[in-house]
Amino acid sequence: MINDFPPAILFLMGAMFVPLFQGRVKNYYVILIPILGFFLVSKLSIGESWHLSFLGHQLTLLRVDKLSKAFGYIFCLNAFAAFVYAFYLKDSSQHVAALLYIGCSLGVVFSGDLITLYLFWEGMAVASTFLILARRTSKAQGAAYRYVLFHIVGGLCLLAGIVLHITQHDTIIFQPGFQPALSTYLILIGFLVNAAAPPFSAWLSDAYPEATVTGGVILSAYTTKTAVYTLIRGFPGWEILIIIGCIMTIYGIIYALLENDMRRILAYSIINQVGFMVTGIGIGTAMSINGTVAHAFCHIIYKALLWMSAGSVLYMTGKSKCTDLGGLYKTMPWTLLFGLVGALSISSFPGTSGFTSKSLIIEGAMYQHLFWPWLVLEIASAGVFLHAGIKFPYFVFFAKDQGLRPGEAPKTMLYAMAFMSFICLFLGIYPYPLYNILPNPVDYHAYEINHVISQL
Predict the structure, then answer these.
(1) Which of 243, 247, 337, 364 has an alpha carbon within 20 to 30 A of 199's alpha carbon?
(2) Where would I find the beta strands (DSSP E) of 32-114?
(3) Which residues contact 33 (CB under 8 A, 6 or more apart)?
């Protein structure tokens, strides 16, 4: 039974029992769930499936292949780190919302049909809203309201597309090979809303910075990455995605460079980084798809690390604007160190996970002789270094001392950041465990001299 048990059910059932526990016992309980989830994912056999009959259709609650397992691994890994980071948290509602959100995300990546996918998709939208509302400020309430409106529009597009697709083709199977049709374009729009592709991107930079300290860490990982997963699954090789992805990379950079709020900088940076992934999906080759999955995996790690670093600063100082911060290297050296690892990783610095993943996408564009997309990705990589590699750590930790003297972040926050930093560096130095779980065979060596020079 363990070889075909959907990991999503573990998280959804786990959320039901959170109110039964209090204090440290509750925190240990929620940390245990992603550990068990990671174990379940590791035990899933390729080709395994789990079906349920519904209105004459076979719902596939579990479809296991290398693509779904790769996302399953990183979703559980990030959940573990996030719950260690949130060990200080007493608010059970955030734990419940987070477990439901992560469970629905796992439900999406292991679903094998459009109906199951849609149900989990909407569950994600509902659960994630409570992570924004949990901050209990007027700004958070307004952002949550706008967040819901965007996702209602995206959900309705997706639902309309699915209904039309089933009506026209009498199948609910979710797989590549969608033919150009109104139903297909509606489904694509539904996915792109969650990917925060312009013109549907405002919800991300509006809502994520207003979430709680823990909520920001969790939100950064799942909604956009489930969208990336569905685009890989349904639309590989669609050239329109190359254009959309390139626009996202530049759009995210411009707004991140103009922004003053440190968590909003990181939110715009998500749009930029997802743009690399969407471009890789549009290229559609085995190398670019591998690069997209690898980059999604590594992005979740280093982006969570950056959100943890920013969240620790917010938690200790109560401030989020870069111009209100500065000089924190004196009293928060460990937070600075771990934040620098995240900054170097997102900048694709050799020796970090960002280098060994993003280079696959850029090389994939070059191998297909896609000069303009390749050039845009190279320019975007330089822009990432400016806003995340320099601007974020400089203004928060090294800029003019504003007289703030907070202590270092709580130990469990530091433990979580240390864990994510280790993974960033380990996969940057030795990426083969990651390459081994990618959907296609990998014949790529990141540290060949030409690859290193091109990234520098």
Answers:
(1) 364
(2) 49-54, 57-63
(3) 10, 11, 14, 79, 83, 99
Q: For residue 242, what are its two tokens?
A: 């190359």
Distance CA 45, CA 50 (A): 12
Rounded CA-CA distance 106/89 in Å is 24
Residue 200 belongs to domain spanning: 2-455
Burial of 325 (0-12, 13-18, 19+ CB in 10 A): buried
Please name which of 213, 352, 348, 158 lies closest in space to residue 272, comparing C-alpha atoms.
348
- Report long-range pairs for 372-379 (Cβ below 8 Å, ≥24 apart): 372/246, 373/242, 373/245, 373/246, 373/279, 373/283, 376/246, 376/249, 376/250, 377/246, 377/249, 377/276, 377/279, 378/454, 379/250
What distance, in Å, lies between the first and last C-alpha atoms of the chain?
49
* Tens-digit pLDDT profile for residues 207-220: 999 999 999 999 99
Half-sphere exposure (CA, 13 Å, Cβ side) for 453?
3
| Structural domain count, the chain | 1
Residue owning tokens 């509302």 = 133
Angle at 422 between CA 314 and CA 74, to 5 degrees: 85
Q: Would you say 109 and 71 are in contact if contact means Cβ atoms under 8 Å apart?
A: yes
What's the pLDDT tens digit per position in 48-98? 888 888 777 789 999 999 999 999 999 999 999 999 999 988 889 999 999
Report phi then psi at 42, rounded to 5.
Answer: -65, -25
Count of H-run helices and E-run strands, the chain: 19, 2
List Cα–Cα distances, 237 to 196, 205, 307, 364, in angstroms.
19, 28, 32, 12
Q: What is the pTM of this model?
A: 0.96
**CA 285, chain centre distance (Å):** 22
CA-wise closest residue to 52 among 116, 107, 109:
116
Return left, alpha or beta for 407; rule: phi > 0 is left, psi -120 to 50 is alpha, else beta. Answer: beta
